Amino acid sequence: MVIKVFLASSSGSTAIKKKQQDVVGFLEALKVDYAQLDIACNEENRMWMRQNVPEDKKPANGIPLPPQIFNEEGYCGDYDTFFDAKEDNSVYAFLGLPPPPGSKAQAEEEEQEEEDLQSEEEEELRQLEEEEEADVQEEEEEDLEETQEEEAE
Q1: How many of the other CB atoms lie within 10 Å of CB of 78?
Q2: Which H or E run includes 103?
Q3: Residue 122 DSSP label
Q4: What is the mean pLDDT of residues 114-130?
């Protein structure tokens, strides 16, 4: 899987340049395999990006600004959602990538999986106990009915 980062190499906006540098720099620091696709000098890249950003993620004017991030064909988000994922330490999930072995993100993911498994086991145990309790109650009711029938005879 290749992460695609759509950038504008000749943007006049310093805010856009800073956002692009932030995304690229962070991906490089994480050693994430990514491709930079320039929308300033490649019309195909610009059209593809504009067509593939979901309608509900486009700004009011309908034209999404770089950087826009995709995992292959799947839309990940723009700079703001990337920044939020970075702040939440969930960039790998944002990118749709598994965290690297030995990383803090992987340890957190494994811890969550362990908690989920433990919760499932606790739920199964609770259900078994309820079934066992219901069986015991049913047996007691049957014994009571038999005793009442015997007394009635």
Answers
A1: 21
A2: none
A3: H
A4: 84
Query: Contact at 8 Å (CB) between 72 and 4?
Result: yes
Asked if 49 and 37 count as a contact pair (C-beta separation under 8 A), the reply is: yes
Kindly tell me if the per-residue pLDDT of 60 is higher than 90. no
Evaluate if residue 1 carries a pLDDT over 80. no
How much is the CA Rg of the chain, to the nearest whole Å?
28
DSSP output for 7-72? E-TT-S-HHHHHHHHHHHHHHHHTT--EEEEESSS-HHHHHHHHHHS-GGGS-TTS-PPSPEEEET
Selection from 70, 109, 71, 74 nearest residue 89 by Cα? 109
Residue type, 14: T
116 — pLDDT class (breaks 50, 70, 90): confident
Residue appearing with tokens 């930079």: 36
The H or E element that residue 98 is part of is: none
What secondary structure letter does DSSP report for 153? -
Residue 20 has which token pair? Answer: 């692009």
> How far are the Cα atoms of 2, 37, 83 from residue 70, in angstroms, in the given order?
8, 11, 15
